[in-house]
Design a protein that fits this description.
Distance between the termini: 56 Å
Number of strands: 13
Strand order of the largest sheet: 6-7-12-13-10-9-8
Structural class: alpha+beta
Helix content: 25-40%
Number of domains: 2
């Protein structure tokens, strides 16, 4: 199995050290997830590379069995790890994030607050925030992959939620989960994507590790950086073409749309800072005095 994992890892965009030779790959733990919408397993893989200590990765796994009308080995590439056999049945062991059932099972487990025990006694805790109540009519089996896969894997669920699986796992409190939960459930800040739920691995010795999060999907037309660059490029192009002395009459110079957007951005950032000043019974978010020197 180590050889199979090795060959699979080096070809994944989310593997962090593709340029370094993998020296060892082991199954550290696994958990079977069963929910009304589907099932599957998450394997926790420890991979070490040259001059890099072991790092843990989350690899959901499931099997698709071959039939007269379906050849999963070819259909599911490049997500297939290996061929498998059970008696006369042949199938494909593959990354379950490419399946129809596993992502739905994760969303279902989050919505119901389910907990699963791993093979080595850890607990996988699925929990929803208060904000999830507005999304209980979502169809978790209607999903599509978001963009080009990078360090994590994200799926758009029913055009309303985003399920993100962290591939390289890091022990400790995850800021995206911690801050997202605070802004969503405590501060009720409406201008960032709300945190709807999380999946965390709890180890009695090492504490908590975030495995996945579920967030609101916010439609957008791009990011502020690109918006600013496009505005500046239009302004420079207009200035290059303008007759001498007519700079101030250019449409881009009279258009205050960009300034209005920046004003809104500044307002939202100010509101965000104000949200963090709330007096709450949580030391992680209690405002601290800044003392010079």
């Amino acid at each position: 199995m180590s050889r199979v994992l090795h060959e699979f890892l080096v070809n994944q965009r989310w593997y962090a050290h593709k340029g370094a030779a993998i020296t060892s790959v082991i199954f550290a733990d696994y958990v079977h997830i069963t929910a009304s919408r589907g099932d599957g397993a998450i394997a926790f893989i420890d991979a070490a590379a040259a001059e890099v200590g072991p790092e843990r990765y989350a690899l959901p796994l499931t099997i698709a069995w071959e039939s007269e009308s379906d050849d999963p080995i070819n259909r599911l590439q490049p997500n297939v790890l290996a061929r498998v056999r059970q008696g006369p049945n042949l199938g494909a062991l593959y990354d379950a994030m490419a399946s129809q059932e596993f992502p739905a099972a994760i969303v279902d487990a989050i919505s119901k607050g389910m907990t699963f025990e791993t093979a080595h006694g850890r607990r996988l805790i699925c929990s929803a925030t208060d904000a999830y109540n507005e999304y209980r009519d979502v169809d978790p089996q209607n999903f599509s992959r978001l963009g080009v896969e990078q360090s994590n894997t994200s799926l758009l669920v029913d055009n309303r939620m985003v399920l993100k699986l962290y591939r390289r796992l890091q022990e400790g409190i995850n800021p995206e989960v911690e801050i997202g939960r605070f802004l969503t459930d405590i501060a009720k800040y409406p201008n960032t994507p709300g945190l709807l739920g999380s999946v965390e691995l709890l180890d009695a010795a090492s504490g908590v590790t975030a495995v996945a999060i579920l967030q609101e999907f916010v439609r957008n037309q791009g990011d502020g950086w690109t918006f600013t660059l496009e505005h500046l490029n239009r302004a420079l192009d207009d200035l290059d073409l303008a007759p001498p002395g007519e700079d101030e009459d250019l449409p881009v110079m009279r258009d205050n749309g960009y300034a209005m957007m920046i004003e809104v951005l500044a307002l939202r950032i100010g509101e965000l800072h104000r949200a963090f000043t709330l007096d709450v019974d949580d030391d992680a978010f209690t405002p601290k005095a800044v003392i010079e020197g």
